# Entry
Amino acid sequence: MKKLLAQIIKFGFVGVICFLIDFAISTGLVALLRGAIGENAAALAGGFFGFTISVVVNYILSMKYVFTRNEELGRKKEFVIFIILSIIGLGINELVIWICTKIYNANPNLAVIIDFVAWFAAAKIIATAVVMVYNFISRKIFLEKHEN
# Structure
């Protein structure tokens, strides 16, 4: 149990670093692009690019510091599995952001209370929390070396 707790804490640190990368890129792009391509498209583009860049950093840090590498997989197969799991996570991320932007756009009174970029930031935090749980469980199952 101590090992699992230590692993979750390390995963949390890696997650915070990657979240900050993702959050900065995604919210920056939303603020930059929303006037040019519209709020919804900017939210999806920002979410996609922030998430994708953070995945590469996450792979490097996770496989070095969090998970016990399964040498039977080999690095190529390990990276492919990591990417597939991350693409599923990206789908979850984009779905949560899409739902949140639809809620914002369906309620015009929200624009009086909160700016779209701030709403997007909150949606990104929610999406990150959901994807973080998925990532830990899926990577533990599919990537980590299991003791027999």
